[in-house]
Amino acid sequence: MSTDPYNGRMDAAGTHKYEQVASEIARLIDSGTFRPGDAIPSVRELSRQHGVSIATVVQAYYLLEAQGLIEARDRSGFYVRTARPSALPEPDISAPRSDPTGVSVRDVVAEVSLADTRHPNLVQLGAAHPNTSLGAPTALTRIQASVARRMGHRIGMYDYVPGCEPLRVQIAQRALSSGCRLSPDDVIITTGCTESINLCLRAVCRPGDTVAIESPTGFDALLSLDVLGLQALEIPTHPRDGISLDALRFALDHHRVSACLVVTNYNNPLGSCMPDDHKRDLVDLLAARDIPLIENDIFGEIHFQDRRPNVAKAYDRKGLVMLCSSFSKSLCPGFRVGWVVPGRFMPAIRWLKYTTSLASPTLSEYAIAEFVASGSYDPYIRRIRRTYERYVGALSDAVRRFFPPECRLTRPGGGFLLWVQLPERIDSLDLYRRALSAGIAITPGYLFSPTNQYRNFIRLNAANWSDETLPALRTLAALIGQ
Amino acid sequence: MSTDPYNGRMDAAGTHKYEQVASEIARLIDSGTFRPGDAIPSVRELSRQHGVSIATVVQAYYLLEAQGLIEARDRSGFYVRTARPSALPEPDISAPRSDPTGVSVRDVVAEVSLADTRHPNLVQLGAAHPNTSLGAPTALTRIQASVARRMGHRIGMYDYVPGCEPLRVQIAQRALSSGCRLSPDDVIITTGCTESINLCLRAVCRPGDTVAIESPTGFDALLSLDVLGLQALEIPTHPRDGISLDALRFALDHHRVSACLVVTNYNNPLGSCMPDDHKRDLVDLLAARDIPLIENDIFGEIHFQDRRPNVAKAYDRKGLVMLCSSFSKSLCPGFRVGWVVPGRFMPAIRWLKYTTSLASPTLSEYAIAEFVASGSYDPYIRRIRRTYERYVGALSDAVRRFFPPECRLTRPGGGFLLWVQLPERIDSLDLYRRALSAGIAITPGYLFSPTNQYRNFIRLNAANWSDETLPALRTLAALIGQ
């Protein structure tokens, strides 16, 4: 053995002692013994445990810190990092084809999305479901029972458009934090964001019309365009800043577009979040052409930064922005409660909602209204933001460590989704099928473009992180390597 | 005073003593002291109470019986009749115009239907709401709480198309009583019958297409046609037997029709119920032309006869019948749970449901499934059938007694709605407004035809009968007389 300029010894394979210590800690982090946010043993303790010098341990910790696996906190030692910068590069801004196109994703949605839900024992990295084990459904159920007792037979009644007033009050109050001044009368309760978006599309588009969308974009939106007979115009979208305004402007100059549909905050699947000044520019760009913006803000509450990002609706002066959201990602989807703030399209949306489903589930609405009004929602949402941030961090690390180094990976600032660009040779639908056979659900890139731009991409959902996740990712990496 | 050939004496006004006794009993029935189904005092008792002879009382009771107010039951005395034949004639079969027409009922729906729900203190004879005070919401809430405890966080999850399997099993089992052999896989759960019907219309019609409908027909259906840009072709409909097959055949021979939308059992507002052989003929008539039948059976469970009437779906051989229903009238609407059995249109309906609202409220579905499976639904539905029959009888009597004799009135065999033809001089929208000022909600005939065939008709809902109902009907009669 020889010494190196810094410290310690090398083994027969030429590995420094401190590197061995570091990789042992890294293994413990990978295996979940130490999880994001956990303190790791002190220098003194590790030195004693491993029978190595203090200097060797310090060196190992510096290495782990350099790798982005741990971080020092003043006077309190080292911790597993929660949001470490990915060592993998981000995907490039997308470059979809620039003509409107028909949408036909039913077959692949049928195979992928609807099939997954019939296999309850899969390791779920696929469907964009939130984690319903984090306490909200239980708390909500308790409140629901007490609301039911108090309301008596009134919970059996229709709660017609615009729906539950106490809930509309809470939605209007919370909208302040996203830059919007709303009155409860500006809000219509729906049975979820999907209903909201469909009502908006139906209000402003006729079959054959063209809708500008982000590329990639969530398949629920693509399916809506498909079923409504609408054309999609895919706009290049940056993995961090969202839809390209230059590209959108160019597209609007060359095509007749009836509406623009954008997830402004933490786009599915990219996790991109438009800077607030981009949102203002987007609103102005569309307003100058009198084109409605259908804004999906369903992930907006799940931000990892201190401040909630604004919505584009905050910059709406002409009533052209139709803000859609729901409690399905931030609380849980099974209650089927969402909303739409339709601006100048209020009369059309009111009739569409009335004829589409008449009313929303009464008890769900009132229970969520009370959950929010009682002050229980805020601590819950703060907690799940931290949880999802940790899970996204852990999933990013695992991808970085297990997946081939030529992969690329997004760095979302909110939500719970990751978008992975795999080597060119990988067909994501083939990978999907092989992963399913191995008991793992992922979402293949085929689902995110009407022109199949993302053959070698997959979306991973970090929300339901469990003890099975790391082994599943190792298996997935092996399938990719095959 | 003089004697008359039968019995007793006349007073100064020439009224027989027995008539005075009878009218006093009638007043007690009108005021609700004796309600439909109640026993009235025995002959002996009344003779003692009034200080009149047994013979006078017997004569009074014969008179009340002749008026249809009471009935004798073997060995157990006299009872207030529950379903007395109306002394008023039924309305004639309708004779709407025979060309397809655009539908525009939004203004009057906005004034009438949406406004009513904002006045909780009205005497409610208007909106076709079931009575949610009859016990179902309470029992359901109890079951819901226990289901929530057992399911835990799974109640927070999406329950994707086709929706809750245990509920589809129950729906398939119950369908046997309406002549249908269904598998649970034939059923898609929706967020109510309105959603079901809209999905069906969207599956088989394009904007501008024509849909054949009953005349009169419920305004929810008219509103759907309006919002979807469809033309309505009103078909003459008999107040007891439903849509005229001869008229429909003639219309189909002269117009291109994309679908036929019919409430086969207890049509809203007529209460008409197609005889089962008419249903078979209807299915055959449409099948020969390959025209889909959208069948609304939302009132089918609320029959006053011994046997549940069949649905037209029972005679469907080509998969052209799309059966729509929900628990909104038989249990309560606030849970937002309905279904559709779309036959050959299953693939289209599946996608439409998926994109329209993704899933239905999970806990509502499972709670209703357990309510039905536990055996609690059947006794409940038997009880409300009797209750609604009594209420419909009481409301019919009151109309007969208070309203002008030139009125006409339906004689529904199920449901809880009555359709009243008022004298020609009455404008039902004007009456609606004056009634509203007097604290009474009714539904004006304007809402039941796209060509305003029913200016002098009103629909009354008997479901929410209360102590306030008779005084309200007296007030309404006075407004009609003004």
How would you characterize this protein structure?
The structure is a homodimer of 482-residue chains. The longest helix of chain A is centred in the C-terminal third of the chain and has 26 residues, at 377-402. In chain A, α5 crosses α12 and α13 packs parallel to α15 (469-481). With 482 residues, the first copy, chain A, is of the alpha/beta class. In chain A, the strands form four sheets. In chain A, strands 4-11-10-9-8-5-6-7 form an eight-stranded mixed β-sheet, sandwiched between helices. In chain A, strands 12-13-16-15 form a four-stranded antiparallel β-sheet. Among the domains of chain A are: 17-80, Orthogonal Bundle (Arc Repressor Mutant, subunit A); 134-377, Type I PLP-dependent aspartate aminotransferase-like (Major domain) (Aspartate Aminotransferase, domain 2), CATH 3.40.640. Residues 1-14 of chain A have low confidence and may be disordered. Chain A has 15 helices and 16 strands.
